[in-house]
Task: structure prediction
Amino acid sequence: MRKKILIRRFDPETVDESFLQAFNVDLPQNATILDALIKIKEEQDGTISFRKSCRSAICGSCAVTVNGVAVLACNSQFKSISWVEGDVIIEPLGNLPVLKDLIVRFYPFWHEVEKTMPWLEPKEEIGEKENIVSAEDVAIIDESANCIMCGCCFGDCTIRETDDNFMGPAALAKAWRFVGDTRDAIKTERLELLSKACNAWDCTRCNLCIDRCPKGVRPLDQIVRIRQEAMKAGIKDNKGARHALAFQSDIKNHGKLNETTMPLKTVGIIRSLGMIPMALRMQMKGKVPFPIQKDIEGIKEVKKIYKIMEVDE
Amino acid sequence: MVTHDLIIVGAGLAGMRAAIEAIKTPDLNVAIISKIHPVRSHSGAAQGGINAALGNAAEDSIESHTFDTIKGSDYLGDQDAIEIMCQDAPGDIYELERMGTIFSRDKNGRIAQRPFGGAAQPRACYAADRTGHAILHLLYEQLMKGGVMVYEEWHVIKLVVEDGTARGVVAINLLSGKLHRIRAKAVIFATGGYGRVFHNSTNAHANTGDGMALAYRAGAPLMDMEFVQFHPTTLKSTGILISEAARGEGGYLLNSEGERFMKKYAPNALELASRDVVSRSEQSEIEEGRGIDGCVHLDIRHLGRDKILKLLPQIRDLSITFEGVDPIDEPIPIRPGAHYSMGGIKASVDGMTSIKGFFAAGECACVSVHGANRLGGNSLLEAVVFGRRVGAAAAKFAEEAELADWSESALKDAAAEIASLLNRIEGEPYPKIRQDLQKMMIQYVGVYRDREKLETARVKVSELKARYENVSIQDLGDVFNTDLLGALEVGNLLDLAEAIVEGALNREESRGAHSRTDFTERDDENWMKHTMAYKAEEGVKLDYSNVTKTKYEPTIRKY
Amino acid sequence: MKYAYYPGCAAEAIMKEADETTRQVARILGIELIDMKNATCCGAGCLDEANLELSYVINARIFAIAESMGLNSIMTICSTCLQTMTKINQELQSDPELLERVNKVLRKTGTEYRGNVQMTHLLWVLVKDYGLDKVKKHVKRPLNMLNVAAFYGCHTLRPAEILGYEDPRNPKSLDLLIKALGGKTVDYRGKTRCCGFHTLLVNERASLKAGGKRLQEAKDKGADCMVTPCPLCDVSLDVYQSEAEKLYQKKTQLPVFNLSQLIALALGVDVSDLSFRKHLVSPKKIISAVIAAEG
Ligand SMILES: Cc1cc2nc3c(=O)[nH]c(=O)nc-3n(C[C@H](O)[C@H](O)[C@H](O)COP(=O)(O)OP(=O)(O)OC[C@H]3O[C@@H](n4cnc5c(N)ncnc54)[C@H](O)[C@@H]3O)c2cc1C
Ligand code: SF4
Ligand code: SF4
Ligand code: FES
Result:
């Protein structure tokens, strides 16, 4: 098959701005994006730069953006890039500084990973053999253990795009790998760290990381697991936890959310005051509902559920 | 100039394990250099398992592991080294587990073990089918924990030896394109294999045997280079590996008649015979017209959906993504492909080479624990066991050694070489030379060899070397010049190809992975010895050394 | 066609207009929506973080309400409700032990979930169950003049293996609907990305910037307005648009419609019934253009 491919070029030594360059290549039916890049480099333009190694989706070298979607070049066959209509556009991974052509600087990615203390802190020495761990306990961290640190999730993460301090999906998935490991000795310490600003609670649950991950790591699912464990461990003095708890109490008390008091419960009185101008504008538009809402009809049953389940607040 | 006490080139299992051991020496300044980020190293691609006689799945013993390895090596392995490796194995695995490796577990919560080719017992410890990945990431975690300095994406282009002692290396920082002198009291190479010498290969693009070539040029002998393992199950279109676990879990090999042809070649072990045996059987079936489109079939359908999803998920993914075949519904087309380099830099059980202060570990070294044929699950083990041992030995050496300065000339030479490459306006682009080499090697130095093929190969290698004299590249920039690296890597492949061909041509017998159709028998009388290849003015100079035997007498190898 | 109707908390309060216009649209198209009077909030993916088991019970109770109404399909107009409830429902349906555990609690409150309910969204109802050809027939005010940026948001698309309605990297439904209403569509990067709503109260700045970015991306590709299938996206993109403009120091002033508002407009509902005055970014110009074209 003959393909027209546009590659985003950038050479820090000669140009200030990146541009798209078009190439036409003949490729076999099963060809991948990486096959195309190699063919172009070896037959048409040796200056095109990209990373590659294993060509089998295990080393994590080759992440690029193809028509707006972060993928591994080596496991993306042309016939499987369903979202591409028209020319194929290959660009560097997002959310990381570009060094040259498709090569990005990975340092910021690793920096976030390192923040999570990504190593086991073993409990006190056991005998001479292995720790005994049930297959079920391994299963809980199985998905996170699949991560190849390719950065596809990071490159398209919503919050990383708008906040450089956000840890990002891969680091958080890696963090879960240790939080969930029964052999680890510092679970609470980890959860406290992860509950701090810009870590587990800042994610906006856009699910892009789940969609992008080529290895089934499902980073958002691991983030939610971290949040759940943190709540169980009683680490609740932060906006994210308060927000979740506000849902729990609103449902109990009214059946519905009370949107007027939600900010108050989540960000506290001081910050809510800052939101007043906004609130006033909404009031003027008739947007803000009456602060004292009517409870739903079956609120008694709901309260009973809370009682049966001994939900403490 | 940068200075460290100990530098380790390579950040796969061997290099990182060495570093973790070395930093246990107080105040020792240790650094790792790697041309790709540590977790991108090819160790991560190892799927199936790592051997140790833990006896979790069935009664097992170190003795039995040792014997299987020696037999697997076709009696070319050094028995003392093999004894050490098998003896140390359980302790090293337990240690990896305690550091945090996520192994699969049996129903008692112990490390699970699966059967592997050439092993009498289920001995391969595994993490689903991403064993290498699990250990590689574990070791990188430990590297971060230990705060080891990593020069990542620095490409080493020269081992500097003065007065018979290693002084350091010259490396390119890919980010800036600058050449650096890195000085050290001791240098470990853990640079992996040379699978990319061949066209059909399970190996990553990065596996160009750099370390072996650099050591060879610096005067260290390469040992047993003619022994190249061809893995029996690699995907038809890409050479990507389908792990032995597929057969370990019960997969069948079928020819065009739907026959389990291994019955003919290895009536007892069948599909789980040693790799060289299985690869040759496949090649024979294909050459005798019972192949399917140049391949045979690996069939795991009878294992059933659940077992495939649970135990072989990655294998299924790879087949679907890279071959368009879902093994739950269809057999996988596979053929033999170059997989593992038994040969390498001659090294002792503590990684010592013929050059003082220069050590080697992992696939780039030849200790030799694999002899003429490596057993599945033994090379991750080699990387871990000897990584640890060499890390300790090199640290000890560095602690006692004096730091010597070395002249700028080594740097100047390297710089001049690169400048001449960058300044060559007319010349032949390297990709074509590489492709021609790889295709030639699989054709003439592949699963079956004979004098005629090997003599042709010899001529062709020297032609290719002549062409390489005039190699050129297009990218003349400094920042991240992957074109330059590509060209340098081809130079390494050529030197190694030469050593492989010469060793193979001279060795007039069939042993393990080296299979000559003109000398079909193993010849212990004349050839139970290691090949040493030295770099000489006019090419390769061969020499031989004895195999170390302890108590295992060579017998006929049958599965 | 009959659905248990679950507008979700936002559409019952801050985004009341979404609920109101949905009812109008349903009336015109002849889709019967039955209110679920007793239903609580679904927890919006937050409750399950506070207390996973509780969130199963609370949602099972909602599903049980639909069952008790004799209905097996719940239609929502909120993407987050859709995703939260679909996910929990699938877990309940595929895990008999879990369902039994949940029912043990529910039975004590006099109800039980038998696992027979499916979740759907107004967008899917129109595209899949009702049919766009039929929608087309009801169009009174075609949106000819308009370049409409379809904003799918996250929770109607992802995760695909749970929602499974369309390719999350190349969705079509909303674009097809816009075309059926006579509008033109805009292709832009932000189409399948995120408005940032769910971190608005945790990381306000990052959230606002996410919403603002989507608006800029649409505007740069020539959008006259944006339409979303979710009242939470509406909040981020319309209510907070001016805040995002401040952060970027760049005006977008892109009117944002809820899906049901845009349909109601095209179906000819009296403009005064569409609550456009509630928008923080005024859609006046857009409305006048549509009405002018109507003649
Ligand atoms: C597909 C596949 C599957 C396998 N499965 C198994 C298995 O199941 N069990 C088993 O026991 N074995 C298996 N093996 C073999 C085993 O994986 C390898 O032998 C082993 O991992 C080698 O480890 P290493 O540390 O020596 O080298 P590698 O992991 O290859 O690392 C080499 C390192 O050297 C660095 N390097 C190389 N050249 C330079 C240079 N010029 N400058 C700087 N740095 C450099 C690289 O960056 C890299 O970090 C498999 C091999 C393959 C190819
Ligand atoms: S779900 Fe959270 S972590 Fe994942 S991409 Fe979205 S914002 Fe980032
Ligand atoms: S979570 Fe997935 S996408 Fe993200 S770095 Fe890991 S493997 Fe890549
Ligand atoms: S080349 Fe290794 S993941 Fe693509």
Summary: The mean pLDDT of chain B is 95. The longest strand of chain B covers residues 178-189. Chain B has 16 helices and 21 strands.
